[in-house]
Design a protein that fits this description.
Elements (H helix, E strand, L loop, with lengths): L1 H21 L5 E3 L6 E3 H17 L4 E4 L13 E9 L1 H6 L5 E8 L2 E9 L4 E6 L4 E3 L2 E2 L12 E4 L7 H13 L2 E3 L4 H9 L5 E7 L1 H13 L3 E3 L12 E6 L1 H11 L3 H10 L3
Length: 270
């Protein structure tokens, strides 16, 4: 329990660091494109987490969105996968609706997942095999709500290409409605609370999904790529997470979509 309890304390401490840092000036830079932003606060928060983890566990390794662990190419030992601010666009434009996400793995197996909604000060957390919680309250197991009665979360900008739109649009049309919240970590949190029944992304990285997936898996939700394969701990992939019924329904839309399958594997360098 030492790693888990330390992680819970650390992520809340990092959230307080962000709250304080937000009251000061910070610089906003572009990464891969004009809509892919990073701020001084992202970088400083990742460094804060990195330093604290290695002070306590010097033998552990860390993969972070903002550059730590770029040379890690295996899953041996204890690995922390960290997103210091998931939802940077929301952080910059709204000052809310962003989260810190941490997934911890031991020899490639999940150990614990943590998602902290900084501005609401809500901590979602789970230790593998011990259930999932919102702060001190146990979260309810997944309910098998079908697609046609469900709100689902999708990032619409990722599915507008010719190769992706067909199956994704069919799923959107069959759902009750679609939402886009701008933070995969918070969408996993909404899934854990039953506020949505599924989330569906064409591209996420491990720091986007590992913390949330450990939490939702504890509640009986199923998380795979869009072809039903296990998610990697290294590299990008597509992600479906939902209750078992809706997960199965969504997978059916992708099974025979050869154009999407070929594009998916090429896009993610699989």
């Amino acid at each position: 329990m030492e790693i888990y309890n330390f992680g819970k304390e650390l992520i809340v401490e990092a959230g307080k660091f962000i709250e304080t840092r937000m009251t000061q000036e910070f610089k906003v830079d572009r990464k891969s494109n004009p809509n892919d932003l990073v701020t001084d606060v992202d970088k400083e928060t990742e460094q804060f987490l990195y330093t604290k983890i290695l002070e306590r566990f010097p033998e552990h390794r860390i993969i972070g969105e903002e550059g730590h662990g770029e040379n890690i190419n295996d899953t041996k030992g204890v690995i922390w996968i960290v997103d210091p601010i998931d939802g940077t666009l929301n952080f910059v434009h709204q000052g809310e609706n962003f989260a810190i996400s941490i997934g911890v793995f031991i020899d490639g197996e999940p150990h614990c997942g943590l998602v902290y909604d900084c501005m609401k000060r809500d901590l979602y957390h789970a230790k593998y095999g011990n259930g999932a919680f919102l702060n001190d309250q146990a979260l309810k197991p997944a309910e098998n709500v079908p697609l046609n009665q469900s709100l689902i979360a999708i990032n619409p900008k990722r599915i507008l290409a010719e190769e992706t739109r067909s199956s994704f649009f069919e799923i959107m049309a069959k759902s009750r409605s679609v939402r886009s919240y701008g933070s995969a970590a918070l969408e996993f949190a909404m899934l854990a609370r039953g506020q949505i029944s599924a989330l569906l992304f064409f591209k996420l990285y491990p720091w986007d999904y590992t913390g949330g997936a450990i939490i939702t898996d504890e509640l009986g939700y199923k998380t795979t790529d869009i072809f039903g394969e296990q998610l990697p701990l290294l590299g990008s992939t597509s992600v479906i997470s939902g209750n078992p019924k809706i997960h199965s329904e969504i997978l059916e839309h992708f099974t025979d979509d050869k154009m999407l399958h070929d594009f998916h594997d090429k896009f993610h360098d699989l």
